[in-house]
TrEMBL record:
It holds the Pfam family V-set. The keyword Transmembrane applies. Residues 1-17 form the signal peptide. Gene3D superfamilies: Immunoglobulins. This is Butyrophilin-like protein 8 isoform X1. Keywords: Cell membrane, Disulfide bond, Glycoprotein, Immunoglobulin domain, Membrane, Receptor, Signal, Transmembrane, Transmembrane helix. Its main location: membrane.
Amino acid sequence: MICWILLLIKLTSCVCAGTFVVNVTQTSYQAEENHNITLDWTFTTTTHSSTNSVSILCELILDQKTSVLFHLHEGVEVSESQDEEFSGRVQFDKDVLREGRITLHVSRLRTEDSGLYLCEVTTESGSSSDKCRLNVTAAVDQSESQRPTERPEPESRGRIDLYVGLGLTAAGVAAAAAVAVLVRLCSASRRSIKSAD
């Protein structure tokens, strides 16, 4: 009999709490490392509800660990409860809170940010939560994709041969000019020696 009474109380509380609902706008997000992302939730509001009575707790849930992404208690941000890994990387848009929206901007994403994000909202109207999944992939290494090939293409090999040939020709011309100057100097020197005798 006691079990039935407890079950009835539980069902009644669920039905009463059903008037207040939190929904995630997107159930799955995909992003690349070092990029930014915006996570959104909505919740039901009433005309008389104040943002000072709203409490929000958003967490990253992993297999072994739960990290606090953002915490708002009765309209006041509690930055001390935020996990260090999100420090300086999460911004909350207070302007849309009155509209029943929770918008969190997460910057400089890391692959470790992948996981299940749960946002729980508590107001005068009740408490509810919803979750979404974020998958952060590693950034593609640009240096690998722009690395030169080991063997030059035949067309570029022909260009290299042309440049080497031109270089040798230029060196040959310079050497021939130097030899010509030396020959003239030697000839002039012999003439001056003969005329002195």
